[in-house]
Design brief:
The protein is an all-alpha fold. It has one domain (26-240): MetI-like fold, CATH 1.10.3720.10. It contains 11 helices and no strands.
């Protein structure tokens, strides 16, 4: 918290030194813009639109990434066949995926969410696959010695060891996905924080750009401190027992 206050103080000092609100408005000016946009309801409307896309893409990326990562980690031949594809997907620029989805699917919500989910799925799959490879072989041998079914091994042996990797994917996923969502909205949506940033970029309204960007950063920070930290503490509790 002290570091954030220091950053705000540095921002205020830089704005005072530059003395040009068109280039860098101070915290007070940005806060006034925030209040006006909130009072009009525009800020909430665009925040909800962006957050909806973030959560939808996040759910798809985590779901498919978890399944793919588990399958590749547990099945050597699948890993040999598809590891190259994962490397390719990891290195395809997000902008290219977004543009192709808009060209192939159209300028709609399906294309927007699909583009974001595709960009993140490979990252989740790689993290989960490496987590499977890092599983304790002694626990694996114990499960085989007791002739545990696959479902029982998955529930009692594999997933408890994978939760830290899932938590890491969750944190990194949200951090990356919301940035990609802003690009998607910047390029082809009619609402959302990215759309507003695009609009005010064209109007050279730096204060409005900062107000919308910082509002969503604050929302993601709140989500991190409450939901994600709580989830991570819960799923890794067994390691501290």
């Amino acid at each position: 918290m002290i570091s954030l206050l220091g950053l705000v103080a540095f921002w205020a000092l830089a704005a005072w030194w530059g003395d040009d609100p068109l280039v860098l408005p101070g915290p007070v000016e940005v806060w006034q813009i925030f209040e006006r946009e909130t009072a009009s309801g525009e800020l909430q409307r665009h925040l909800v639109a962006t957050l909806t896309r973030v959560l939808a893409a996040f759910a798809l990326a985590m779901g498919f990434g978890l399944v793919i990562g588990l399958a590749m980690g547990l099945t050597p031949w699948l890993n040999r066949w598809f590891s190259t594809w994962l490397v390719v997907l990891l290195n395809v620029p997000a902008l290219v995926v977004i543009v192709l989805c808009y060209l192939w699917i159209g300028l709609n919500e399906t294309a927007a969410i699909t583009a974001v989910a595709l960009n993140k799925t490979a990252m989740v799959a790689v993290t989960i696959r490496e987590g499977v490879h890092a599983l304790d072989p002694k626990l694996r041998d114990m499960a085989r010695a007791f002739d545990m079914s696959f479902a029982a091994r998955l529930r009692h042996v594999i997933l408890p060891q994978l939760w830290p990797y899932v938590a890491a994917s969750t944190r990194n996923g949200l951090a990356i996905i919301w940035k990609i969502v802003l690009v998607v909205e910047f390029l082809g949506r009619s609402n959302g924080v990215g759309f507003q940033i695009h609009l005010y970029f064209q109007l050279f309204e730096t204060g409005h750009v900062l107000a919308y960007a910082l509002s969503f950063v604050a929302l993601m920070l709140l989500l991190e401190l409450t939901v994600i930290n709580g989830f991570e503490a819960r799923v890794t509790r067994w390691r501290r027992a």
